[in-house]
Design a protein that fits this description.
299 residues, alpha/beta, Arc Repressor Mutant, subunit A, five-stranded mixed beta sheet, 9 helices, 25% strand
Length: 299
C-alpha cells in the first residue's frame, strides 16, 4: 500500500465528509476510494470513521491519526515546492474563483496583466456565482462578495459593491425619475429571477427595511440581460453596481433612488493560511489586491 496516497485519501474523505465527495475531489472511482479507506483501517487495525447514511465523521483514533497525516503531507508538499523553487521564485499554478460578473469585469483584465508580469505562473480561473468549496475543488484564492462566515481563512477587504436601481436616459425622460420608493409602482421594471417574476423590491439599510411594490414587465434570469434590457429602454432594473458601471460611464444608464440603497456589500480576497507562503501566492496577492481595490473604487 502507498502510504502517502492512503493518507491523501483519508484527508480528502475527512475534509469533504463522504466517499463520493472525496472521489470527485481526487478524480478517482468511488470504489477505489472506499477500498483504500478499508485497506488502511485493516492495516491499522482501527476504525477511522463513523459511517452514517449522510456523512462520515472521524473516530477518536481517526482524529489523532488524521492530524499526523496532515503534518506529513504538508511536509512532503513543502519539500516538493522547495525543490521546484516555489518558495524561492514565483512559479507554478494557481486556481482562483470569483463571481461570474465580477470576474469578467475586473479579474480577467488584471489577470492577463499579471501573467505578462510573471511568465512562470499559470492561472486557472473558475468564474461562477455559486459559492465554491475551496478545499474540495482545490482552489487557492477566492474573491467573495458579501458577509463572510467564520472560518480559519485569511480575508483581505478590497472594496465594496453597491446595489443600484438604474434606467436609460431615454426611459427616464419619457417616464420621469422616481423620487420615492412608492414611485416604483408607476414604472416598468426589469426583474431578475429564475422562476417567478418578483412583485416587490426590498430595501434594507441598517435596521430600516422597506418593501416597494413593483410592476415587472420583463423578467430575465441574469443581471447581464437585465442591464441590456434597461439600456434598450425596457424599464428600471436593480443590479450590482459593477454590472452597469460600463453603461453608466457610457451614458446609457443612470442611477436613481440612490438615497434608498442598502449598505454596500463588502468584497474580500480569501485564502487558506500557509507557512511559509509560496512565492506565487504572495506575488498574486501583492499584484491583484491594489489593482482590484482601484477598479472597485472606480465603480
Amino acid at each position: 500500500m502507498d502510504r502517502l496516497e492512503a493518507m491523501s485519501v483519508i484527508i480528502a474523505v475527512t475534509e469533504t465528509g463522504s466517499i463520493s465527495a472525496a472521489s470527485r475531489r481526487l478524480k478517482s472511482p468511488v470504489a477505489t476510494v472506499s477500498r483504500k479507506v478499508a485497506e488502511l483501517e485493516s492495516r491499522l487495525k482501527a476504525q477511522l470513521f463513523q459511517r452514517t447514511s449522510r456523512r462520515m465523521t472521524l473516530t477518536d483514533a481517526g482524529r489523532s491519526y488524521i492530524d499526523a497525516c496532515k503534518r506529513i503531507i504538508e511536509q512532503v508538499d513543502d519539500a516538493e515546492r522547495e525543490v521546484s523553487g516555489e518558495y524561492r521564485i514565483p512559479k507554478g499554478g494557481l486556481a482562483v474563483t470569483a463571481p461570474w460578473g465580477l470576474g469578467h469585469t475586473h479579474l480577467v483584465p488584471s489577470a492577463i496583466e499579471f501573467l505578462q508580469a510573471y511568465p512562470e505562473i499559470s492561472l486557472r480561473l473558475m468564474l461562477t456565482d455559486r459559492v465554491v468549496n475551496t478545499t474540495e475543488e482545490d482552489i487557492d484564492i477566492a474573491i467573495r462578495v458579501g458577509a463572510l462566515p467564520d472560518s480559519g481563512m485569511i480575508a483581505t477587504r478590497i472594496g465594496s459593491i453597491r446595489i443600484v436601481v438604474c434606467g436609460s436616459p431615454s426611459y427616464l425622460e419619457a417616464r420621469g425619475r422616481p423620487g420615492q420608493l412608492a414611485d416604483l409602482a408607476d414604472h416598468d421594471c426589469v426583474t431578475i429571477d429564475d422562476r417567478v417574476a418578483p412583485s416587490v423590491w426590498r430595501f434594507v439599510r441598517g435596521s430600516r427595511a422597506k418593501v416597494a411594490p413593483i410592476k415587472s414587465r420583463l423578467c430575465v434570469n441574469t443581471s447581464e440581460a437585465a442591464v441590456l434590457a434597461a439600456i434598450a429602454g425596457a424599464g428600471l432594473t436593480r443590479v450590482m453596481s459593477y454590472k452597469m458601471d460600463a453603461a453608466k460611464q457610457a451614458g446609457t444608464l443612470a442611477i436613481v433612488l440612490d438615497d434608498f440603497e442598502p449598505e454596500p456589500l463588502p468584497v474580500h480576497i480569501v485564502y487558506s493560511p500557509r507557512k511559509p507562503v509560496p512565492m506565487k501566492l504572495r506575488a498574486f496577492l501583492n499584484w491583484m489586491t491594489p489593482r482590484l481595490k482601484t477598479r472597485l473604487a472606480l465603480d
